[in-house]
């Protein structure tokens, strides 16, 4: 396995992504946790030093563990990682002097060839992405230059005899088009064969779950989303009936969703499932509440109470299964400090295990989202389920601005179903990151047939995004929007007007509340 030492770059996760794409198993660990002893116990086959926001010229700035230099495995330093490598091995790094470089740059090859640059410079210079204030002004003894850019005379250097490689730019970002090739060359040189596959992961995870759980009982909260579903199916494969799933219907799910979840897990996969219809409780407590944060907190609190109630019925339960993913696990190295503003209180069950005195089973902790989807396919989950758009924990509550009523929820469910059906029929579902309808807290006047109507207005939302952090509205054609509005108004009783939300994020958020 490969170790990535994180010095706090915004794009460290992308290094792991590039390596996983090559079927290489790697882990990211923050520099302040990686000392000589850690290195020895982790026993990496190769090490990558990430970029970072600090300056190696600042006293007390982060360093790689000294033992790394005599550990005997290939090391690749990127940006800050390159600079600390030079500094620690006897070179010199300096700040400023007008040599900062941000953005696109072109690297010219040196006189000699370098194995990690196989496939580079086929068309002369190579485009790379730079982001640095400091620069190396003297390379360490034993290093040679293999590439230069106008502002980085030491853009690519290496000490081939010791297998140390150092680049000033970021090969992990898209704007370094041959970056993936560089990583591929590096891992081949380190002896990786790229044999880390989902089939292998499945076997390994099953063995681990069995070893961890023994003959004890495990509870898993199912939300109907991809992560908890894949976790449940994997754990069921490992321990069968020692797993009980709890699915809480809070009355804020989409049309037929509860029935579909029950059918899939109970009938298809034969998993022990408690399906709890608690919609009266949730909708009762939400009555009269229109403040978005109060809604979210009410749902979060009730969810924990209800889950605990059902979990207590499972005798001898010692473990709680969660679909935690790798991005939630990576400890971020943040230099910015300071509390960030809460935009929305997310509904999650993070506090559950301590409250209930349960140990955690998290079989997806090492995976990225698209790897979870691949594992889901490996476990036989249908593509229509794996490719579903994200759905928030508080469900339709946050798509019903203002007060929530059963009547509004019913209208919203029907309208959302028509909207999603339209998107599927037009083959747009997979191009869109997330799409949904929201019912607005207003009625408007319309005319249908010869009569006056006074019904609800609906907002349609559809966004493109990579991770939900930023998003742009989806550019439907006018024909599509017109056809969809007509269908919704004709087919859904209670709606007489449809708007399309063209707000990006920021300044908007994806959900309306
Ligand atoms: P926003 O509205 O914050 O949404 O732009 C970003 C993504 O997060 C989802 N979302 C949630 N997911 N619990 C969740 O599990 C929540 O409380 C929650 N609130 C928003 C939202 O659907 C979008 O995909």
Automatic annotation (TrEMBL):
It comes from the Bacteria. Keywords: ATP-binding, Glutamine amidotransferase, GMP biosynthesis, Ligase, Nucleotide-binding, Purine biosynthesis. This is GMP synthase [glutamine-hydrolyzing]. SUPFAM superfamilies: Adenine nucleotide alpha hydrolases-like (SSF52402), Class I glutamine amidotransferase-like (SSF52317), GMP synthetase C-terminal dimerisation domain (SSF54810). CDD domains: GATase1_GMP_Synthase (cd01742), GMP_synthase_C (cd01997). GO terms for molecular function: ATP binding; GMP synthase activity. The keyword Nucleotide-binding applies. It is an enzyme of class 6 (ligase). Pathway: Purine metabolism; GMP biosynthesis; GMP from XMP (L-Gln route): step 1/1. It comes from Fuscibacter oryzae. The active site is at residues 79, 170, 172. It holds the Pfam family GMP_synt_C. The gene is guaA. Catalyzes the synthesis of GMP from XMP. Homodimer. It catalyses: XMP + L-glutamine + ATP + H2O = GMP + L-glutamate + AMP + diphosphate + 2 H(+). Coiled coil: none annotated. Its EC number is 6.3.5.2. GO terms for cellular component: cytosol. ATP binds at residues 223-229. Residues 196-388 form the GMPS ATP-PPase domain.
């Amino acid at each position: 396995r490969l170790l990535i030492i994180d010095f706090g770059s915004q794009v460290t996760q992308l290094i792991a992504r590039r390596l996983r794409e090559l079927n290489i198993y790697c882990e990211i660990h923050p520099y302040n946790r990686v000392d000589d002893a850690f290195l020895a116990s982790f026993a990496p086959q190769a090490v990558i030093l990430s970029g970072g926001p600090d300056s190696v010229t600042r006293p007390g700035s982060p360093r790689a563990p000294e033992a790394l230099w005599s550990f005997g495995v290939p090391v690749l330093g990127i940006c800050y990682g390159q600079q600390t490598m030079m500094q620690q091995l006897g070179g010199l790094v300096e700040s400023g002097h007008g040599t900062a470089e941000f953005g696109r740059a072109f690297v010219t090859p040196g006189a000699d060839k370098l194995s990690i640059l196989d496939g580079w410079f086929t068309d002369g210079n190579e485009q790379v992405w730079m982001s640095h204030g400091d620069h190396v002004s003297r390379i360490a003894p034993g290093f040679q230059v293999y590439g230069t850019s106008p502002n980085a005379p030491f853009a690519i250097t290496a000490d081939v005899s010791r297998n140390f490689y150092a680049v000033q730019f970021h090969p992990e970002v898209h704007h370094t088009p041959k970056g993936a090739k560089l990583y591929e060359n590096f891992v081949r040189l380190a002896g990786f064969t790229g044999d880390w596959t989902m089939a292998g992961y499945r076997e390994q995870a099953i063995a681990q779950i069995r070893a961890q759980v023994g003959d004890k009982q495990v509870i898993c909260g199912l939300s109907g989303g991809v992560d908890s579903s894949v976790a449940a199916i994997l754990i069921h494969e490992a321990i069968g009936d020692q797993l009980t799933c709890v699915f809480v219907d809070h009355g804020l799910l989409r049309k037929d969703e509860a029935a579909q979840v029950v059918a899939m897990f109970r009938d298809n996969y034969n998993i022990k499932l408690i399906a709890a219809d608690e919609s009266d409780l949730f909708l009762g407590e939400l009555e009269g509440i229109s403040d978005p944060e109060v809604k979210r907190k009410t749902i979060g609190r009730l969810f924990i109470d209800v889950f605990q109630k059902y979990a207590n019925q499972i005798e001898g339960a010692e473990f709680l299964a969660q679909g935690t993913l790798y991005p939630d696990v990576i400890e971020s190295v943040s230099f910015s400090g300071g509390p960030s503003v809460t935009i929305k209180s997310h509904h999650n069950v993070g506090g559950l295990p301590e409250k209930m005195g349960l140990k955690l089973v998290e079989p997806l902790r090492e995976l990225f989202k698209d790897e979870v989807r691949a594992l889901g396919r490996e476990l036989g989950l249908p593509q229509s389920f794996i490719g579903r758009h994200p759905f928030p924990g508080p469900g339709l509550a946050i798509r019903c601005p203002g007060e929530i009523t059963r009547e509004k929820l019913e209208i919203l469910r029907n309208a959302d179903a028509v909207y999603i059906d339209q998107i599927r029929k037009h083959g747009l579902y997979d191009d869109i990151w997330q799409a949904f309808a929201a019912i607005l807290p207003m009625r408007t006047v319309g005319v249908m047939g010869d009569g006056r109507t006074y019904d609800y207005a609906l907002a349609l939302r559809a966004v493109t995004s990579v991770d939900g952090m930023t998003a742009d509205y989806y550019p439907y054609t006018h024909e599509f929007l017109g056809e969809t509005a007509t269908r919704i108004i004709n087919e859904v009783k209670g709606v007489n007007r449809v708007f399309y939300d063209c707000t990006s994020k920021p300044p908007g958020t994806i959900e309306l509340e």
